[in-house]
Design goal:
heterodimer; A: 178 residues; 8 helices; 68% helix; globular; B: 154 residues; 5 helices
């Protein structure tokens, strides 16, 4: 997996046009799915993903470890999404909001109809918990990759994951998460 | 997924053309050459009227601003991939070589510092070509090693 990613990243760094197409073909859907989970709506995910790909293209020549392509792309995606959430929550009354500690984030109601029960519950979680569950279970990133993506120690990832699992379980069973 | 893979590939392909990169590379070379030439005149020409000195200083600032803009675009917007780096640095060699040739032809009418600026520019461009070639060779070697190992696993 990482050798395949490394090869793709190196071909992009060389400037091979078809490698960029292959890179997008390989990672567009996972990145969009992740963005959809975190951003809460398909429209927001579309905007965010375009921004992510622009950042990826501009950052590729400076990518030092091509083998870590997946973690690097999701790191960019996460930063792009957090930037958007900061802007979204930068209204005057909430100008000092820390996105790491955001409260419950309501998803667009019109999307709930076509989501599975599990995904509805996931979408209703606060952004930090949604983020960590999406990366771990939907994108199957390892703990070390998540640590790199989220720029926090592995221990923090574990505790966030634990809290997110409890919250999701509580929401699915109708209990309390705390 | 509202934006399809093909749509995203088309959107990103627009930002990968060599034309804009070549344009900004030429802008960088020309603005450095003009700034260097003007600055050398300003620094070495004695007895210039104050108005002329001021005008030359303004030209230096404008030229430096254009050079900074081109460098920023090439570093942040239309970034240079390995093949682009080689093409851009070769363009820089041609541009700075022409500038040096021009300075040599008109050396009797130009300050000696202009020759230094032109020489430095050409040396810098040649260094960029060498670095770009080394960088590309390293990437190609790694790419070929990965391709060989992936074929070996099949």
């Amino acid at each position: 997996m990482s050798a395949e990613d490394e090869l793709l990243a190196i071909r992009c760094q060389l400037g091979e046009r078809d490698a960029f197409d292959a890179l997008i073909a390989r990672w567009h859907e996972p990145v969009w799915t992740y963005a959809r989970r975190v951003a809460g709506s398909a429209d927001a995910a579309d905007d965010a993903v375009q921004d992510v790909w622009m950042r990826v293209m501009r950052g590729l020549p400076r990518l030092k470890e091509p083998a870590r392509l997946r973690a690097w792309i999701f790191g960019i995606a996460r930063r792009a999404l957090m930037d958007r959430l900061r802007q979204q929550y930068a209204a005057p009354v909430m100008s000092d909001v820390d996105v790491e500690n955001l409260g419950a984030f309501e998803p667009d109601q019109d999307l709930a109809g076509d989501l599975a029960h599990m995904h509805e519950r996931l979408a209703a979680l606060p952004v930090v918990e949604r983020d960590v569950l999406a990366l771990f279970y939907l994108q199957e990133l390892s703990m070390s990759e998540m640590s790199e993506v989220m720029a926090v120690p592995v221990g923090t990832i574990k505790s966030r994951l634990h809290r997110a699992r409890r919250m999701l379980y509580a929401r699915m069973t109708g209990g309390s998460s705390r | 997924m509202s934006v399809t893979i093909t749509e995203m590939q088309q959107r990103m392909a627009a930002g990968l053309s060599m034309r804009s990169r070549a344009g900004y590379t030429l802008l960088l070379v020309v603005s450095i050459a003009m700034t260097g030439l003007t600055a050398s005149l300003l620094a070495t020409e004695p007895g210039l009227p104050d108005r002329t000195r001021l005008a030359l200083a303004v030209l230096v600032v404008i030229g430096a601003a254009w050079a900074a803009l081109a460098a920023w675009v090439l570093a942040r917007r239309h970034v240079l991939f390995a093949q682009h780096r080689i093409a851009a640095s070769c363009l820089a060699v041609v541009g700075s070589g022409l500038f040096l040739a021009g300075v040599i032809v008109f050396r009797s009418q130009l300050p000696a510092a202009a020759m230094g600026v032109a020489g430095l520019m050409l040396a810098g461009a040649l260094l960029c070509v060498a670095q770009a070639r080394r960088f590309r060779a390293r990437l190609i070697a790694r790419r070929d090693a990965l391709l060989t190992s992936s074929k070996g696993q099949l």
